[in-house]
Design brief:
Distance between the termini: 38 Å
Strand order of the largest sheet: 5-11-8-9
Largest sheet: 4 strands, antiparallel
Number of strands: 11
Order of helices and strands: EEHHEEHEEEEEEE
Oligomer: single chain
CATH architecture of the largest domain: Sandwich
Length: about 210
């Protein structure tokens, strides 16, 4: 068949796109519909302007490492699709995230272990933690011990919002169930990454920025 792109006219074999329409795809599509409708019917002009500003100052890096700025509605959808999919339509965030400060990656403390399907995480920050700080913990998918896990995909373990300053101001300890317990063979390699954020009106999806 004949087609055209910015390089000019060309020919290609006719292909019928595959639409597997899995439950996961359906859930994301429905969440996108909810988010798009909320932006069009529930946000005020000032809220939309806030999303545009946030999108202009927070570029998104795609899977091949290219950084680009989304539109205001694009950023609204990016943040809210995940919230709707995980928590339902009531989780829609109409206001744009406030000033988000990425305070740096944390280093492993005394306890960084996997026992009986539970990760025991102890991390140390370069400075003191404060009430309201958010820590995001990711674990790499399992791989054979002969391979380094640093390039493995990451799975979210969870977010922790500090309700009090830890006893040791720059050290935080928590436990999370292993999301890959069913496929994590004995002796498989893994790595935990922790990220430290501080900001007003911070949404979970904003935390994914900077995670590769």
């Amino acid at each position: 068949m004949f087609s055209r792109n910015k390089g000019g006219s060309y020919t290609r074999a006719r292909a019928i796109p595959v639409n597997r329409n899995t439950p996961a795809q359906t859930a994301i599509r429905n969440a996108l519909k909810v988010a798009s409708s909320a932006y069009a019917t529930s946000t005020t002009p000032s809220q939309q302007a806030g999303w545009t500003t946030f999108a202009q100052t927070n570029p998104v890096v795609n899977k091949i490492g290219v950084s680009k700025n989304l539109s205001g509605i694009g950023m609204f959808q990016k943040v809210n699709v995940g919230l709707v999919n995980l928590l339902g339509p009531s989780a829609i965030q109409l206001d744009s995230p406030g000033a988000v400060t990425f305070l740096g990656s944390l280093v492993a403390g005394a306890a960084l272990a996997l026992t009986a399907g539970v990760f025991h995480v102890d991390v140390i920050g370069p400075g003191a933690f404060a009430i309201g700080d958010i820590l995001a913990f990711f674990v790499t998918t399992p791989c054979p011990p002969s391979r380094t896990p640093v390039h493995q995909p990451q799975v979210l373990l969870g977010f922790s919002t500090l309700a009090a300053v830890p006893t040791i101001p720059n050290e935080y300890t928590h436990t999370y169930p292993d999301p890959g317990a069913a496929t994590r063979a004995v002796g498989s390699a893994w790595m935990i990454r922790a990220y430290w954020y501080r900001g007003a009106n911070l949404s979970p999806d904003a935390l994914f920025q900077g995670v590769t």
